[in-house]
Write a structure and sequence with these properties.
- The chain has 59 residues and is of the alpha+beta class.
- It is 24% helix and 58% strand.
- It is built from one helix and three strands; from the N terminus they run βαββ.
- It has a three-stranded antiparallel sheet with strand order 1-3-2, with helices on one face.
- The longest helix is centred in the N-terminal third of the chain and has 14 residues.
């Protein structure tokens, strides 16, 4: 069975840490792929970023 885990953080280092913690829980061969995306928008005159990743893995 295939599964996905979604991560969404405001800072890239927070995303990196969250994904690394999850990957440490997986066994060898479970990881299939990681999709990464950055979204930028303006809110009240300030630039806001959203860093996200989707980890695809075997259960």
């Amino acid at each position: 069975m295939y599964k996905v885990k979604i991560f969404d953080e405001e800072h890239e280092k927070d995303l990196e840490s969250a994904v690394n913690r999850f990957l440490a829980e997986l066994n060898e061969g479970q990881l299939i792929d990681i999709k990464y995306e950055v979204a930028a928008m303006e809110s009240e005159g300030e630039q806001v970023y959203c860093f996200s990743a989707m980890v695809i893995y075997r259960d």
